[in-house]
Amino acid sequence: MESRPPQLSLDELHLLRWLTGGSLMLLAIATVFYLDIDAGVMAILAAAGVAAGLVWPTLPARVPVWAHRLAFPAIAAFFAIDLWHSGQLLPAIVRLDLLLMLYLGLSHRARRDDLQLVVLGLFLIVVAGVLTVSLLFALQILVFTACALGLLMVVTIISSTEGGNSPKLAVRGVVPPWAARADWRHLFVRLREVSDWRLLASAVLLFLGVVAVSGLLFMAIPRFQLENSLFLERFVTKKAMTGFSDSIKFGDITEISQDDGVAFDADLSDPTRAPLLPYWRMVVLDEYHDGGFKMSAYLKGKAGLGGERTAANILTGGHGTFGAPTWTIYLEAGVSRYLPLLGPFDALRFREAQNFRFSYDLGMVSLRDEPAAMTAYRVDAMAPDTPLMKDRAFSLLRRNPARVRPDKLQTQLEVSSADAAALRAMAAEAAPRAGAGASAFVEQADAWLRRRHAYSLAPRIPPGAGDPLVRWMASRESGHCELFAGALVLLARTSGYSAHVVTGFRGGTWNAYSGNYTIRNSDAHAWAEIWDETAQAWRRVDPLAGPGASAVTQDTSGAGFAGVTDRSWSARINSIRVFWYRRIVNFDQQSQVETFKAAKAATENSGRWLQNLFAQVGLGVRSLFSGPWNTARLLRVVAVAAALVAVGWLALALRRVLPGRRGARRFDPVRREAGRWLARVEGPKDLVGDLQRLRYGPAATWPRPREVFSRARQASSVRRRRPASSRSTS
Amino acid sequence: MSEFLQAERVAEAKAALGRLRTNMSRAILGKEDVIEQLLVCLAAGGHLLIEDLPGVGKTTLSYALARSTDCAFSRIQFTSDLLPSDVTGVAIYDEARKEFVFKPGPVFANIVLADEINRAPPKTQSALLEVMDRARVTVDGESHAVGTPFMVFATQNPVDYEGTFPLPESQMDRFLMRLRMGYPQHADEIEILRTARSGYDALSLSPVVTRAEVSAIQALVPQVFVEDSILEFILSIVAATRTETEFRAGASVRGGLALRTAAQARALVNGRDFVLPDDVTELVPSVLAHRLALARQSGDALEERRSVGAHLKRILAALPPPA
């Protein structure tokens, strides 16, 4: 039976179109906020304008007609001036897109404008997606697609309802009837009335199906680099964001460590060989000047970091540790242009060619620009956390110290003479046995520092004249990692040892869900390295290794990895991000092969599991009925039967409780069959009567259905035969 | 409809209604369909409004029904000066008993013919409301039951509207059906011309059904089985009248109930203990048409009725009966 379901009126459809169009624009404008493009103020203006137009559909009619006339010349002029002024094409186009959206949001759109809207929105979404490669992009493109499909469907329905007579252009300055009657609450009530949950569910299923098929296609197609194909990244000038740079003021690292955001995720090919407490080195700061450490011009120069290269790989010629695991690191945007590394490695591979500088001796890789999007790189055979860093260049310098400038030797103290005297006194107190070797000095100085100062994230540097670090060292105030590291370096240099500060990250957590290391900004750390003449290497000295490390509870259970295992909700969410990086962003041919292998293994495993399950169930059933019967066995059988009955009853009850389509009821098969025969048979009256009784009569008075149906069959076959026989006789 | 009907009782009811039909068709020639609808209305315990031009047999039909049963019959000729108490009855002071005594009006009968009902003022018309709804009259706070069974048989002339008071919608809704008599066929009219004698008393009909039998039939109707898909069919028709833009307002819930009851009654009239889709479709015009008004009022009452009928026909054609 067909019943006419409630439908939306034309006015309501128009309002729905306005709603989906407005949401689509807001969604697209939102992407601009996390793009590294100077369009924040314009995005806020556009969002506010579009939102106001969306909420009050009569608002666009108040825009004066001259504004509409002037709009397009003005926008075109703005774009030309913007392009000329900024000289960057992509930001100018994004700003143009925002202006056009603002205009469309503040005018009553005709069908053509709605289609333009989809294109404008899609442009912003794609630009944001390619530039940021973030997980949010995946979500946004999904929501956007759903929204755009909805909008196009509503536009099509409206156009077919209006019989193709809808005006191509909206009349300016006149409130359309649907906008005058707009009532959001009423629309939502009506939407709830007309929406059939089955239809909604099938639409959602269809959409998910499309997404799944797209996902499969993505897995199967040959790999290519999206951003390289579109060249979009090259249109944007990158700005350095907060994070590690080649100079720090005291408090910088602590400020970074206040942020709990993810700095980078690290995948390990062999999780059982994860280091206990990894120190991720990023920047070596060797020059102390004016209360802060920075990278000297010498280290930054060709002799230090080396010249700039453009390549997709860094090969060191097998200097890594043989058999060490391979790391894949996903460095978030804005952390630094210096890449975090544990130590020497065999090879470092980027996804594509990069402009970088690399120094094997310093153990540093520096990209030319601060990456605006996530940067992924794979490091083969990277030495697991080593406290000694070989530095061939520095060993050469140390061989002939008299001929080398003291700043190259990293022993120079740029402090006043008073401060230098104070430092000497402190050094004498800290390490009385000067010249006993670096390791002995480190032990003494470390102990001295820890005796005098406690660790605190909110340090106090006593006021006064002279160098702030020396003032702090002379006091007994508490301090953070940079002060400890800096103090150690100053003490070492005073005592004649070469020393520098290293910044980077320490520790990290093991994400139990995605099986990788997650290093957060809160793990940011600074420590010192002192030249060890006997080992001919830089020895890592972390005055805070004691208290800092004690906070890390070691968990070596399970897969055998070390460190803190994170099972929190944020780890769960982060695991989705890692999945996105592993399987989507960083998805190369190797990952493709791995995925297919994993899928094959999973299919085989589940097949085997099912086979085992069936075999076990079969055995269970056989053992239930074979063998001698006793009370326990009988009880078991009864319990199983009762459980089956209960499940059946529950299923029936659920069927009754769950909402069905309006008007749809469980239809008796006898009634259905009788209905079919009634439509076909024009037989004797009593047969029709019986069929009618089976179809419409009370079940208790039914004649035997089988007999009635067989009579109906006979009657219909007689009817079929009769015309055939009459043809043959004629 | 928890209990199903016993076949014998259905057969008895069919036989009794068949006797009524045969008897009445002796007095009203060539109007079998109208007689059947009348019997449906009687079985369903509803009230009937007959609309047509004068002299086509409206009153004769009611007389024929009254004479075929042993039911008490009364006739009220509605005029513009008729008072409510003329219909319901009045309390009169009895000198001998020193109290007010209720003197029942003509409505206290089993079959009441309200002739030319639209000639009475609305006040008098509405006096009929309570009786039609509850088969009771309340005078001076005292409630009196009218006869059982009780059926109001109203007639009105749709063309001559001069000096009439059209029935309000609320009252229209209380009639189960509205029928039209129409002119008889040529052969039937010849027969009428040949045999008819003047005066209703000349109708030589004898009662063939007792009052108790009528009451028994009326008690059977609610027990006639209605399958769920039929109920949904009824509801879809009613719902369609509500979304139809040509109608000012759709059929009421009472309209849907009336359609169901009438369909049950028709099933019984045809000797069935269950309802067929045909029972519903056949009755839709007579049960629903008078409950619907066109969104665009027309001055011509006949034209309006035709238009409503056409829309209903279109709705029925668009709604396939349950298969």
Task: Describe what you observe in this structure.
The complex is a heterodimer of chains A (730) and B (323). Chain A is an alpha+beta fold and 730 residues long. Chain A folds into four domains: 211 residues, no CATH class; 276 residues, no CATH class; 39 residues, no CATH class; 54 residues, no CATH class. Helix content of chain A is 53%, strand content 13%. In chain A, β8 and β9 form a beta hairpin. In chain A, α1 runs parallel beside α6, α5 packs antiparallel against α6 and α24 packs parallel to α26. The longest helix of chain A has 37 residues. Chain A starts with 9 loop residues before the first helix and ends with a helix. Chain B is an alpha/beta fold and 323 residues long. Chain B has one domain: P-loop containing nucleotide triphosphate hydrolases (Rossmann fold). In chain B, 47% of the residues lie in helices and 15% in strands. In chain B, the strands form four sheets. Chain B has a five-stranded parallel beta sheet with strand order 2-5-8-1-9. Chain B has a two-stranded antiparallel ribbon with strand order 3-4. In chain B, α11 runs antiparallel to α12. Chain B is globular. The mean pLDDT of chain B is 86. Chains A and B meet through α24 and α25 of A and α9 of B.
